[in-house]
Specification:
Layout (H helix, E strand, L loop, with lengths): L1 H48 L4 H14 L6 E5 L11 E14 L3 E14 L17
Length: 137
Amino acid sequence: MLDKVIGIFGAVFVNILFALCGAMFVGLVGEWYALQNEAAYLANSMAKYGGYTTEANAELARFISERGLDRTRLAVQVSAPGGPVPWGTPVRASVTYRFPYRVGRFVSFDVPLVGSARAVSAYVPGTYSVTYTYPAF
């Protein structure tokens, strides 16, 4: 009899744990996809213009405001800030966000999600008239 009671409590605990982890997984997959998409945009922009431009920075600011992200939890790393890189040079962009995950009032933790992308610079000097900058949001 005692083994059935323990088994029922164990089964309920496993089901609750499965539901919480499943909800977290489904919610965070969409957020990871958005970060991955933004990192791909930044890498492709750097590949086109040879570096991180003010246009890419404006797109990053738009992304942050549309998604309602907290700027203090966001980290952006790019491989070509401040100036153009020559044709054929690999460029990388990485967007990291620490998503707060809350379960009631007592369980609270951050889940770091990283979106990263790579591209190859196709910049030819004198092709575009753009202003290069560093990631600032």
